[in-house]
Amino acid sequence: SAVISQKPSRDICQRGTSLTIQCQVDSQVTMMFWYRQQPGQSLTLIATANQGSEATYESGFVIDKFPISRPNLTFSTLTVSNMSPEDSSIYLCSVLPGASASYEQYFGPGTRLTVT
Amino acid sequence: GEDVEQSLFLSVREGDSSVINCTYTDSSSTYLYWYKQEPGAGLQLLTYIFSNMDMKQDQRLTVLLNKKDKHLSLRIADTQTGDSAIYFCAETLSSGTYKYIFGTGTRLKVLA
Questions:
Q1: Euclidean distance between CA atoms B103 and B100, whole angstroms
Q2: Which tens digits make up the pLDDT trace of B66-93?
Q3: Nearest 5 degrees, angle CA A3-CA A78-CA A103?
Q4: How far apart are CA A89 and CA B79, in angstroms?
Q5: Strands B9-13 and B106-111
Q6: Residue B29 reports pLDDT greater than 90
Q7: Looking at beta carbons, which residues of chain B come within 8 Å of A104?
Q8: If you measure CA to CA, which chain A residue comes closest to B94?
């Protein structure tokens, strides 16, 4: 398994501003992912954070709105840009350590974002 | 399609067994997972099952997989109040992308 931390744990932001969320893992991992969980909903994959190259975005998510960095094998950031109230969600990072053949992902505690 | 469906709510009495069901539509799923989300927290991996298995038991948890019907269930024996949470099933496809498709989530409420 892996121990994952996220910063901030929660934030209240004004519309039009941007917030950068950090995800730190206690060990090197093969893959890192960013998910969004809208209120009362399930999780939707935003993108796969690729180390040393551009993230791979899912349908409906674009780099201009959700720029992602992954400078090394233990750290990634997700920025929510030009926020609107519709961006109010929990944002979670997850990791796939790579040592297991069963592809289990481990999740961070999440960042609860409220946009006013 | 890649839809994973779950019933929204389940209520059980403390000490009873809980059974949470999940149906999926993609027959190429290789692994299926169960996660638990407590209020205000991230997701905790509970267990997983490989698609060529029918059953997996891990302490109070029993996972049953009916691949023909694309049906997955999680049975929690001797349910406790601490088991109250939202439970998500998830599948990963054989495409090699390691992407998860999450179910809609089942809110389990355990009554004392």
A1: 10
A2: 999 999 999 999 999 999 999 999 998 7
A3: 45
A4: 30
A5: parallel
A6: no
A7: 31, 33, 45, 48
A8: A103
Cα A64 from Cα A76, distance rounded (Å)? 17
C-alpha B82: how far from chain center:
17
pLDDT tens for residues B47-64? 999 988 999 999 999 999
Size of interface A-B (CB pairs under 8 A): 49
- The whole-angstrom separation of Cα A58 and Cα B98 is 13
Q: In chain B, where does DSSP find H-type helix?
A: none
Whether residue A106 lies within 8 A of chain B, CB to CB, comes out as: yes
User: What tokens were used for A69?
Assistant: 């960095």
Of B31, B102, B105, nearest to A102 by CB-CB distance is: B31
Dist. CA A115–CA A86, nearest whole Å: 8
Asked if pLDDT for residue A115 goes beyond 90, the answer is yes
Q: How many CA atoms lie within 13 A of A4 on its CB side?
A: 34
